Design the sequence.
């Protein structure tokens, strides 16, 4: 039995589980060595950069890394500029421009695309204590949002809802790969043992790249992200972290910046991060971005009634949400939402208490307390959180 992934053809070896575990440990160690040798980034001497990071920089000069979402709706782009004063808020940051024809957002004959700063974070990668990450959204030459700018629409929706205080918490799943596209730590010519021991696991034969994951957590906390936690996921080489709960746009802003930080740290380790919702075919869990949602009414005593009313609204807008929940308008989620492996069917809306095989889950503790939040399990791991959260607000609060 075999399957193809990212240009590789991997062959399953039919061995007894205990033998397979031992072979996995041996071959995964070999794979790591080969993996590091194949990664150009890990060949660089990082101590040379540290030499320059230790140099004293002028107190009034600040490095600002401007981030934005490109035309795919999935990928982060960035460029740096030096400011002549320390910004105290996004209002202190200038707009900027970039070549949108190189990011799938403009044509070459009119390619200047505008960056407007929207959120500011401490930068864990630059040496200066005042250096910042600047999250931006993007605008065409006529001043209109680019097609991939879902933040502007989400902001417009939030501006209409008054004091309902929507909170969002997002569970970001992802998978680590080597530079050739093989899941990190998997045997070079076979499979790991079946799913079961890896979720929240411990041990060198069950967990891969914990150092990278823990570095990411510390960097996100330093940056000012509402980082809530992390855990190893069901498929080996798959992980999850959570942001929020945060009010309004902050959880979505935080998720995009946390994705950038994760990929930057992975660069240094020579590891590839993929947010593909189904990176491995077969009996392996896919990856989602389960989104927890609540309002002031849901969190109040008797809030379960507001939760049930919101779920009823969602049940009538299922296809609209499926289109909003991955960048390819449902095409990526078709591979993941198959009605098994802890997913619901993409074609049918469902909900239940403590059930992970439904579209929307009400946690057991919420049902017992009679108030709290619900979890929308449909968003894909590569979703645009602005589109996801915007759809929830427009359906549940604006009745669109």
Sequence:
């Amino acid at each position: 039995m075999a399957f193809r992934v990212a240009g590789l053809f991997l062959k399953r070896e039919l061995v007894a589980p205990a033998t397979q575990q031992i072979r996995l440990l041996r071959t995964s160690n070999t794979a790591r060595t080969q993996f590091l040798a194949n990664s150009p980034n890990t060949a660089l001497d990082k101590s040379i950069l540290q030499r320059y990071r230790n140099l004293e920089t002028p107190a009034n000069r600040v490095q600002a890394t401007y981030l934005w979402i490109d035309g795919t709706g999935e990928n982060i782009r960035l460029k740096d500029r030096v400011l002549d004063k320390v910004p105290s808020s996004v209002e202190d940051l200038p707009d900027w421009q970039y070549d949108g024809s190189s990011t799938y957002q403009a044509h070459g004959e009119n390619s200047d695309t505008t960056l407007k700063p929207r959120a500011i974070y401490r930068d864990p990668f630059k040496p200066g204590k005042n250096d910042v990450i600047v999250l931006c959204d993007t605008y065409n030459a006529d001043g209109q949002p680019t097609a991939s700018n879902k933040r502007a629409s989400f902001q417009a929706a939030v501006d209409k809802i008054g004091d309902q205080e929507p909170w969002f918490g997002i569970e970001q799943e992802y998978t680590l790969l080597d530079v050739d596209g093989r899941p990190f730590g998997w045997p070079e010519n076979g499979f790991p043992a079946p799913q079961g021991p890896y979720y929240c696991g411990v041990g060198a034969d069950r967990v891969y790249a914990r150092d990278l994951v823990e570095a990411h957590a510390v960097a996100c906390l330093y940056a000012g992200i509402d980082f809530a936690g992390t855990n190893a996921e069901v498929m080996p080489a798959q992980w999850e972290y959570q942001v929020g709960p945060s009010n309004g746009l902050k959880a979505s802003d935080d998720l995009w910046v946390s994705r950038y930080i994760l990929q930057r740290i992975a660069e240094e380790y020579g590891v590839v991060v993929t947010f593909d919702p189904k990176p491995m075919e077969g009996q392996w869990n896919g990856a989602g971005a389960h989104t927890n949602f609540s309002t002031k009414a849901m969190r109040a005593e008797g809030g379960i009634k507001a939760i049930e009313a919101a779920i009823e609204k969602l049940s009538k807008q299922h296809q609209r949400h499926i289109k909003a929940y991955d960048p390819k308008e449902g095409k990526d989620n078709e591979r993941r939402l198959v009605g098994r492996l802890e997913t619901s069917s993409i074609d049918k809306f469902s909900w239940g208490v403590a059930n992970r095989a439904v579209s929307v889950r009400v946690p057991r503790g919420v049902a017992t307390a009679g108030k709290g939040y619900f979890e929308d399990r449909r968003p894909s791991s590569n979703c645009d959180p602005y589109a996801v959260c915007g759809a929830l607000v427009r359906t549940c609060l604006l009745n669109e």
Summary: The chain has a mean pLDDT of 90. DSSP finds ten helices and 15 strands in the chain.
